[in-house]
Amino acid sequence: MFKIDQQLEFELMKAEVTADKKAAKSYVSRAKSAEAVKLKADEKTAATAHLKDNITVSDLMAALDKQKAEFQKLIEDKARAPPKALKKAKGKASAPVQKKKGKEVNNSKQKNKGRNNPPSQAAKKRQTPSTHSTPSTKKHRWHHIPKPYRSRKPVKSISKQQHSATQSVTAATVVNLSKTPISADTHSILSLGPVFRPTPAPADDETVQKSVRQFSKSIRTSAFFALNPPDEERAHNPKLYHPTGVAVDPESPALDSTLMKYEATISRALKHTQTVQYSGNLTHTERATLKRLSEEAKNGTGDHVFLCADKDTAFVAVTHRQHETMWHSHTSTDAYQETDFFQVKWESFRREAVRLAKSALKSKLITASEYRFVTKDCTGSIRHPVGNLLVKTHKLINLYAVHPVPVCPTRVYIDTVNYVTTAWAKYLSVLLTPARQQIKGRIFDTTDLINKLSSQRFRQNCWIVTADVVEFYPNTHVSRGDEVIRKHIPAHLVQLCLSVAELIHDSIRVLTPVGCFEMDQGYGIGLGHSGEICDLDWASVEQRVFAALASLLLSPAFWGRLVDDYLLVLDGPIEERLQIIQALKDADPKRPLKVPSQ
């Protein structure tokens, strides 16, 4: 009888230590039932058991006091233990372990399983129903179905989740080179980065249906003019002339059925998306700030001009005066000549581009598809070339600079997208690309440089020299480009390409905040063929220099060039190293090699 009391009290103390309320209730109920059994027990049987065990009451009380002291010490140790250790001890001393089919199962884990924690892989395997035995009782009928995962964390709205994720991925630096501070709203929208794209507003039914009808109309118009070539007068009318390579009868039943199928498919997709609520990736305040910045950039108002960095995804804020000073540092050189925008004959450039294309097509120098490509931007309104500045934030910045000294070095980039001669420039680029890929010592990218250096072995005291060619693009004369065309383009296309190159340089008029300028004596970054022309021209210069050095038994241990950036590895006597560097500096007086100070 006293053993039963001792065991029940021991279990109650265990339940209190683990603070498991459910287990404690079950133990209390068990204690009550055991107490009832104890009262109904035969006193004679209890006395006999007491005599057989030969244990006195005082011995039992002493053992009980000892166990109470051990549990008190255990509670104090758990209070001083770290949280993880406490949690581990709680798991071990919580609910009693019972055997079920030869395996030990923890009751508390079975009760809490699947509520706030997703089921593990092992649990999923155990819960999979067997194909040989089917649960028969109602209690175990659905035991094999795992309980759904329920998280207690509050769920954010979709728009906020998308916006926060976009901010973390496209976070960019905002560099303010002016003395005027940037507002918090402006800084927030600029920190999204130059490559950030806001979610567009959903289009209504009327807009989508109008676009579908316009698409069908353009297909029929293209099919009509594919069978009926336009005359000279209609060739420049964007509403009628749509060059295409598909000769299809505009009244063909197959064309009608195809267009009707497209319209029906788009209509069904539109009805399906009407129930979907689009969530933007910008807040209302950020969208208003973005609209304000766009209007200020378009009208030239506001306190700042925001430019992109040259080698980083960052925005650079400058004042209008600083912006003009940066442009003056480029336009004041011999590479730019100021001209009057309204005196430029833009229409004559478009007509000359079409005339050259027709003449080449008639002479079978280009195919019909090439003709459509080079004349694709010769319809509609003319999009003029626009100059942009990329700020070299990795170079030295002088915040105290005054006009005419710029606050930071910049690079000019000419935006010629969809200009009337852009397709012709791309045509020249395609013809010159095979020759460019064969340049000795050319570095394509970082991976190519690593592969080339991995096969080399250098001395421990060698020099690693980095250098760049000054004004690589603007100081490459047009006459040098004509020599590149004569050397690397097939003979039957040389005359056509020379006429096209002349047209490209005559038609380039760059719009800048300080005026309109032409670049008829040099090349600019942004022209489709400028990279190939300048790269091939400088390759001939460096070949001449290295050939002269080889005659003196001088050569670098390794050299490579990525456009205008050099990497040299020099070993041997110091006099020979300096002689190699000086030979590259004197290779072209207009484009000297700039070597950083040692």
Report on the structure:
- This protein has 598 residues and is α+β, with helices and mostly antiparallel strands.
- Among the domains are: 2-117, no CATH class; 205-274 and 283-438 and 476-525, no CATH class.
- The chain is 50% helix and 11% strand.
- It has helices at 2-18, 21-40, 43-53, 57-80, 83-93, 107-112, 121-127, 158-169, 184-190, 205-227, 253-273, 284-299, 320-331, 346-362, 368-374, 422-437, 446-454, 478-488, 491-507, 530-551, 574-585, and strands at residues 97-100, 103-106, 173-176, 305-309, 314-318, 337-339, 386-391, 410-415, 463-469, 509-512, 515-518, 558-562, 565-570, 593-594.
- It has a five-stranded mixed β-sheet.
- Helix 16 crosses helix 19 (491-507) and helix 18 crosses helix 20.
- The longest helix has 24 residues, at 57-80.
- The protein is extended and about 120 Å long.
- The protein starts with a helix and ends with a strand.
Question: Topology of this protein?
Answer:
Blueprint: H1 2-18, H2 21-40, H3 43-53, H4 57-80, H5 83-93, E1 97-100, E2 103-106, H6 107-112, H7 121-127, H8 158-169, E3 173-176, H9 184-190, H10 205-227, H11 253-273, H12 284-299, E4 305-309, E5 314-318, H13 320-331, E6 337-339, H14 346-362, H15 368-374, E7 386-391, E8 410-415, H16 422-437, H17 446-454, E9 463-469, H18 478-488, H19 491-507, E10 509-512, E11 515-518, H20 530-551, E12 558-562, E13 565-570, H21 574-585, E14 593-594
Parallel strand pairs: 3-5, 4-7
Antiparallel strand pairs: 1-2, 4-5, 6-11, 7-8, 9-13, 9-14, 10-11, 12-13
